[in-house]
Amino acid sequence: MSNQGSLSWRIAGSLVCAILLLGGSAAAIQHAQASPVGRSQPSATSARVQSHRSNPGLGGNGEPTTVDSFAAPLVNGYGADPSMVYDSQDGYYYLIYNRDDIQGKVMLRATSLAGLLTASQTDVWAASDAYGTTGLGGGYLKQYGNNWFLYIEGSNVGNMVLESAGDSPLGPYSEKAEFPGGPGPHDSGYAFQSIEIDGQYYGFETSNGEGTAANSIYITTMSNPWTITGTWNLIASPGSNPFGSGWDCGGGACIDEGSSIAVHDGKVFDIFSAGKYASPDYCVGMMWANLGSDLTDPSSWTNMNKCVFQSNPAAGVYGPGSMTFFNAPDGSLWVVYHVKTTTADNWLGNDRRLEAQQVTWDANGMPDFGQPYALGSYQDLPGGDPGQQVWEASQAILRGVNVQQSATAVGGSYVTGMDQPDSSVSFKVDEATAGTYRFDVEYASDAVGPVAQDVRVNGNLQTTLAYEPTGNSSDFQNANYVTLNVKLAAGSNMVEFTPDGSFGTQAAQLSLDQMLPVVYDGSQDAAQAQYVDSTLLPANTATGLLTNSGINVPTGFYVGGINYPDSSVTFSVIVPTSATYDMQVYYDNGGSAASTLNMSVNGGSTTQPSFPVTGKWGDFAPGQYITVPVSLNAGENTVEFSTGTNYAELDRIYVPDTPDSSDAGR
């Protein structure tokens, strides 16, 4: 938690993704309804139980199944201080959280909790000189009326609230108000949020500890979600000594921080984090008050004075914190939180991962949070959650491969041994609309270097995937993915994975588990706004340099080296209406002068958009893009960038799902 916090209590959505599970073979993909498939619960270590070289009776028909469970961790990679809302109006979960490689605020959305693992992210607020370029901490997402409010912290302004321009949680957002100063003896704080209870707005904030004052939780009244009207009242504190030894002094730091509020059966519950966030002894505390009591009166609150949710050493997860409430589609109460994966005192916080689980209730009407889960384990989805389509490699059309078992693989099986001349894994994919589609492929590899696979669609080679080593070819609990972009025809398609051959016997060390669709698929509006990563497209990047060392890069990959005579990067863009669209091009330019790239749309005349100096190479800040008006046709279009003057590197483009208002309906 920043400053040593985060909170929230209702839901908004995330993109539906489908997963392709691969285990050294190729499979067939199709968007078709199938009976749900569950995942087996993993043990601490996975083992290969059996192995079969594929034969006509092994594998499946290559069609997808629907997974009725979701994994821990909830998202890929580092994650802390989450806030999630489910929006019943559009059927999406919306998740914001802190990442160590993103300096602005990003949001994920999916129609299923299972889809968050591979959901595309949207930049909703950028770090800046005005608000703080070193990062934006905290984050609570709330809806009041038709608009959405995002409570965050800027290093230059402290707590502030942003308001959406319309009824979409994705924004755009603008600043609504700042909350200078704060509660406590030092008149400063963090983890501010508002909540409406019985028609009254309240503000909760954590004071900054200093000297003999410990970080503590305060409450005040508000007239609306952005205006404080009352005085601050202390409702939770570890005492006057910030270095004591109480239950909320884990890691040697006495701290109560952050709040998330839920109302249930006549009681108001406030869960908060306690101790030092870097410590494995960080935990979740709780206090409660009777609904209808004066919540600004400290005597109305009963503090449990203990950790109500803490480390689970047997599961290998430690220091849970920044827990916030959200409501599932069926109205049940859930929590999302982060855990540590090590016992080290890690101030960087890059050992934190996100998890979620349901809250149950005891006979006295008190919440029971259970224990945090082991990474790689799976839980049933909430009621009303539609689940996620996946293409399991073990159920693909298989040839010349092995099928083996692992407790951490989807369905308990995966494919490996793709080192024969005739090895292949084929998936059947049905799409209503022709276009470029994105999938994430989950894999494991104990090879000493990259392993390559060719991907063919309907018999034609489209791209080659490179799989980096993961250290183990049978353990999928860390959820390692490569992203596949392929052009699919309307109707039925066969997507086939075969050995590339350039890495020799290393192909035998690659295992495939599953494949998931990302960003959009045929079951969604094909005009949905797209983030497309140039390095991962089946683009013509003839001599472009593919690199993965970028900062603020959603997938970790971007394209450089677009400065040779034959260098080019081509994007496929689908829009609903022929019109002019404001396309955002995310780039960097660490040179000393502005650069240009040649750009053409659908093979037409060339223009030269200019890319101003950004000061750094390999750094793509959320707000670091140029806006280029492009005239697009209804349906699929190509946008190609090629060598211009000087030099610029590309990360992704964004095309909104509505045209420039000045040209609507062209």
Short note summarizing the structure:
Helices cover 0% and strands 45% of the residues. It is mostly beta strands. Strands 2, 3, 4, 5, 30, 32, 33, 35, 38 and 40 form a ten-stranded mixed beta sheet that branches. A five-stranded antiparallel beta sheet has the order 1-7-8-9-10, with no helix packed on it. Strands 15, 16, 17, 18 and 19 form a five-stranded antiparallel beta sheet that branches.
Walkthrough of the structure:
There is one protein chain. This protein is mainly β and 666 residues long. The chain has a domain at 530-663: Galactose-binding domain-like (Jelly Rolls, Sandwich), CATH 2.60.120.260. The chain has no helices and 52 strands. Strands 2, 3, 4, 5, 30, 32, 33, 35, 38 and 40 form a ten-stranded mixed sheet that branches. It is globular. The chain starts with 10 loop residues before the first strand and ends in an 11-residue tail after the last strand. Mean pLDDT is 79; it is low at 4-57, 519-549 and 661-666.
